């Protein structure tokens, strides 16, 4: 090759420079023609300028340091060039020994920071293994805890007499029911709404969680990601605070439950009983009652579908009766539940179409926090007291506070409403405290009893506990009953006879037996001696220191039949009759017809004309004994008590006993019919059907009663006035605009209005015709013949409410040194009891009328018979 075509030297170096010497010639290569190892010229120490020597190749360590810009074999590029090239070149040299190759050796740029698949897999395995160990340890350590106390709280539900309609709920509004009490369709409604795989999953369903997330992200149907088991665990075992640890614990407990800790039935039952459904209802039973007014076992599939839908949005769906938006959302959710029922083969498509055709099952109107308003508070208190007192200690306040009881009462809602309405009607017409100060503090109490079984059908206790009046006027003691006690005297006299002779012979008594009905008569004992009275409180003059009985009227009718005295409510015959029959016999009869011993005031002669203070309930029950022909039934307000579905065995069965013979009872009824037909109770004729009853008014008009009955219903009404500070009865003179308040007025109006409504749907029933009464005692089984009894003498200090009727001993002479009353002239004991005594009004009598102050009234209408009268009751 010619010289002019030879390649020029590289890097400006001459061919004959030092570099050529290093390469050597081709022919002299000892390596068989291979080029010699390249060397790099570098300046030699002490050499001439520009002179270089051969440089050996760098080691890997030198190359690595050079790449990192640290020099030490640095090459000719210089520090600046080495720095720029270091970031672009992969690391060189031997691979370092590291546990985790990260950042990755031998890679540059982004690849240096991307983990290798080995690193990813290793990391995943380490994390997965660690989590598995942690979860495994946590699962082994966790146990199913005790249920939260709040989840165990229940309410007590009180039902009206139909056994279905809720009267009230006290405490926590929940009533647990067994799964057997929830129809299968309703169970499937909840599975369709909340957990379609409930029957097969192990407590947790990952697919449900993913589906819920997807639906929420896409705006689809709202469905809980938690299984029914998880929701049950949250309701019963955990608090509601959403934290990661609580969620993990919820899942672990759910898995443990799903793996055999509890059966599916147990979980589903607990879930249904602990959910909140809105309207203050916890549990399926309370929800069924809140939305549809039925028990859980009465729900339809369609109704159950809506209730299942409320679990997700209870605060919204509870307002479907008033909120159109809530109704629209609820309807969509209800349709969704039905569609999922079809998908899961829990109902057919035809059934779904039928349900859709009927439309959304609209709930009843929501009663916001009804509470114990109006009469309900008194009814609940009465039923609770009855149940506790008849439980032999097995039902206490503490157990009731725990809840779970269902108390089925005897009260009829329509009757309670009618009685309350009748009282309000009377008050609106007559009682106006803003106009008359006399109308202030006037109270009304009433009770209605079924004579056939003693069941209380209605009471009126007052304006309501919700208005601050906590005393139940129907069940209160302390209000004297006045002349309404006289039928008990008559029943005792007909059963036991009257002792009027020193030898203690008992003489038969009938309604036609005659007694002196004059005013201000002395009363004698069975031994013939007169009762002393030095108190000075009698309305009659008592110059002789003897007790003189007053009537409401100063008339002197002489001897009259006991029927006549009952019709016109005259006191003197019945005070003397009571003494002749005897305290113990009259008391025995009072107890027999259902009065409580603690309410009886047996230490005075006034006992026979109503100083006792039984409640309106007990007096209605006593008259019901006459209505049921002598059979007394203990007043009942509770028919059944159950606890979590199990009937309590301690509630006593209905008790009934003969208090008197049918002849006696029917005869007393016949006499009380006369009171309504032509006596002080004529206002009760407005009822328009056979009725028997008795008025009663006490001293100074401090109480006024009317108690009456038909064969189907016995009702008592009392009106009184009480000082709210002193707790003492006050005179009702002027109340309602009446100068004198009698039982024939406002109480009878309430009675008539109520009985008309309560009996409106019942047929008219006649009272039985009494059989001729020809002997003492009774021919009924188990009723022993009476024996004469000698009674103790009442104390003088307690006899201010009684007076005496003059009487003669068998010889026709007075039994003491005082002169006999003119009205007794010519009448022997045999004449009196044979009905042959002269009944014409006697001449003479008191020359002046005693002051009406303190006189005793028989409950008659002021415009009624002039001889009406009743007892003298010391204030209260």
Automatic annotation (TrEMBL):
Residues 69-85 have a biased composition (Gly residues). Residues 824-833 have a biased composition (Polar residues). Residues 766-776, 792-823, 834-853 have a biased composition (Low complexity). It holds the Pfam family Transpeptidase. Residues 554-719 form the Penicillin-binding protein transpeptidase domain. The chain crosses the membrane at residues 119-140. It catalyses: Preferential cleavage: (Ac)2-L-Lys-D-Ala-|-D-Ala. Also transpeptidation of peptidyl-alanyl moieties that are N-acyl substituents of D-alanine; [GlcNAc-(1->4)-Mur2Ac(oyl-L-Ala-gamma-D-Glu-L-Lys-D-Ala-D-Ala)](n)-di-trans,octa-cis-undecaprenyl diphosphate + beta-D-GlcNAc-(1->4)-Mur2Ac(oyl-L-Ala-gamma-D-Glu-L-Lys-D-Ala-D-Ala)-di-trans,octa-cis-undecaprenyl diphosphate = [GlcNAc-(1->4)-Mur2Ac(oyl-L-Ala-gamma-D-Glu-L-Lys-D-Ala-D-Ala)](n+1)-di-trans,octa-cis-undecaprenyl diphosphate + di-trans,octa-cis-undecaprenyl diphosphate + H(+). Keywords: Carboxypeptidase, Cell shape, Cell wall biogenesis/degradation, Glycosyltransferase, Hydrolase, Membrane, Multifunctional enzyme, Peptidoglycan synthesis, Protease, Transferase, Transmembrane, Transmembrane helix. Residues 166-341 form the Glycosyl transferase family domain. GO terms for cellular component: outer membrane-bounded periplasmic space. In the N-terminal section; belongs to the glycosyltransferase 51 family. In the C-terminal section; belongs to the transpeptidase family. This is Penicillin-binding protein. It comes from Streptacidiphilus fuscans.
């Amino acid at each position: 090759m010619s010289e002019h075509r030879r390649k020029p030297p590289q890097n400006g170096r001459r061919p004959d420079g030092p570099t050529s010497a290093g390469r050597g010639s081709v022919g002299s290569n000892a390596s068989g023609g291979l080029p010699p190892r390249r060397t790099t010229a570098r300046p030699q120490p002490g050499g001439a300028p520009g002179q270089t020597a051969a440089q050996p190749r760098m080691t890997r360590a030198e190359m690595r340091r050079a790449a990192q810009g640290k020099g030490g074999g640095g090459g000719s590029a210089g520090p600046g060039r080495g720095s720029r090239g270091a970031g672009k070149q992969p690391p060189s040299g031997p691979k370092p020994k590291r546990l985790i190759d990260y950042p990755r050796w031998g890679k540059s740029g982004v690849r240096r920071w991307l983990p290798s698949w080995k690193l990813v897999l290793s990391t995943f395995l380490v994390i997965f293994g660690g989590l598995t160990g942690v979860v495994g340890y946590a699962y082994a350590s966790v146990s199913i805890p005790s249920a939260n106390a709040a989840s165990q709280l229940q309410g007590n539900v009180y039902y009206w007499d139909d056994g279905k309609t809720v009267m009230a709920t006290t405490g926590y509004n929940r009533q647990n029911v067994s799964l057997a009490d929830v129809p299968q369709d309703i169970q499937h409604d909840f599975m369709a709404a909340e957990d379609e795989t409930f029957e097969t999953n192990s407590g947790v369903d990952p697919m449900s969680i993913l589906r819920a997330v997807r639906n929420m992200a896409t705006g689809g149907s709202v469905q809980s990601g938690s299984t029914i088991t998880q929701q049950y665990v949250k309701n019963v075992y955990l608090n509601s605070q959403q934290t990661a640890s609580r969620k993990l614990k919820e899942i672990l407990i759910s898995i443990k439950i799903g793996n055999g800790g509890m059966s599916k039935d147990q979980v589903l039952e607990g879930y249904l009983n602990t959910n909140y459904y809105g309207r203050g209802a916890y549990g399926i039973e309370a929800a069924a009652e809140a939305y549809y007014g039925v028990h859980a076992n009465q729900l339809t599939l369609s109704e159950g579908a809506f209730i299942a839908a409320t679990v997700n949005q209870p605060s919204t769906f509870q307002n479907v009766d008033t909120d159109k938006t809530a109704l629209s959302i609820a309807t969509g959710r209800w349709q969704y539940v039905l569609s999922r029922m079809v998908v899961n083969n829990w109902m057919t498509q035809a059934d779904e179409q039928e349900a859709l055709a009927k439309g959304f099952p609209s709930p009843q109107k929501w009663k916001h926090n009804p509470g114990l308003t109006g009469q309900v508070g008194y009814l609940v208190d009465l039923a609770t007291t009855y149940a506790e007192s008849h439980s032999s200690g097995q039902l206490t306040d503490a157990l009731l506070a725990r809840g779970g009881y269902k108390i089925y009462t005897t009260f009829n809602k329509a009757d309670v409403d009618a009685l309350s309405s009748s009282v309000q009607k009377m008050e609106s017409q007559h009682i106006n405290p803003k106009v008359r100060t006399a109308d202030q503090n006037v109270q009304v109490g009433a009770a209605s009893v079924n004579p056939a079984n003693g069941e209380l059908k209605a009471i009126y206790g007052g304006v309501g506990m919700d208005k601050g009046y906590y005393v139940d006027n129907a069940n209160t003691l302390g209000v004297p009953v006045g002349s309404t006690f006289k039928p008990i005297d008559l029943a005792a006299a007909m059963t036991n006879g009257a002792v009027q002779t020193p030898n203690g012979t008992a003489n038969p008594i009938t309604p036609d037996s005659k007694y002196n009905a004059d005013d201000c008569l002395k009363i004698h004992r069975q031994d013939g001696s007169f009762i002393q009275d030095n108190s000075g409180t009698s309305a009659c003059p008592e110059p002789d220191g003897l007790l003189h009985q007053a009537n409401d009227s100063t008339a002197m009718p002489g001897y009259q039949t006991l029927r006549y005295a009952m019709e016109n409510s005259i006191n003197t015959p019945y005070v003397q009759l009571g003494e002749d029959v005897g305290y113990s016999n009259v008391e025995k009869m009072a107890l027999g017809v259902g009065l409580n011993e603690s309410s009886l005031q047996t230490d005075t002669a006034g006992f026979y004309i109503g100083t006792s203070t039984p409640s309106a309930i007990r007096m209605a029950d006593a008259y019901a004994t006459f209505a049921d022909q002598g059979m007394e039934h203990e007043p009942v307000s509770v028919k059944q008590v159950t606890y979590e579905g199990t009937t309590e065995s301690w509630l006593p069965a209905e008790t009934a006993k003969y208090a008197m013979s049918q002849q006696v009872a029917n005869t007393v009824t016949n006499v009380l019919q006369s009171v309504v037909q032509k006596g002080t109770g004529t206002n009760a004729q407005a009822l328009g059907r056979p009725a028997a009853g008795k008025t009663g008014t006490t001293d100074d008009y401090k109480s006024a009663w009317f108690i009456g009955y038909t064969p189907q219903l016995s009702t008592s009404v009392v009106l009184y006035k009480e000082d709210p500070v002193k707790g003492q009865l006050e005179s009702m003179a002027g109340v309602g605009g009446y100068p004198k308040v009698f039982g024939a007025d406002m109480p009878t109006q309430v009675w008539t209005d109520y009985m008309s409504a309560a009996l409106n749907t019942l047929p008219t029933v006649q009272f039985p015709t009494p059989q001729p009464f020809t002997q003492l005692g009774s021919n009924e089984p188990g009723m022993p013949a009476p024996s004469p009894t000698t009674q103790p003498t009442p104390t003088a200090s307690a006899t201010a409410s009684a007076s005496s009727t003059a009487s003669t001993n068998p010889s026709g002479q007075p039994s003491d040194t005082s002169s006999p009353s003119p009205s007794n002239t010519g009448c022997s004991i045999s004449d009196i009891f044979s009905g042959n005594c002269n009944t014409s009004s006697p001449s003479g009598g008191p020359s002046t009328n005693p002051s009406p102050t303190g006189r005793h009234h028989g409950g008659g209408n002021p415009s009624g018979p002039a001889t009406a009268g009743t007892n003298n009751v010391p204030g209260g």
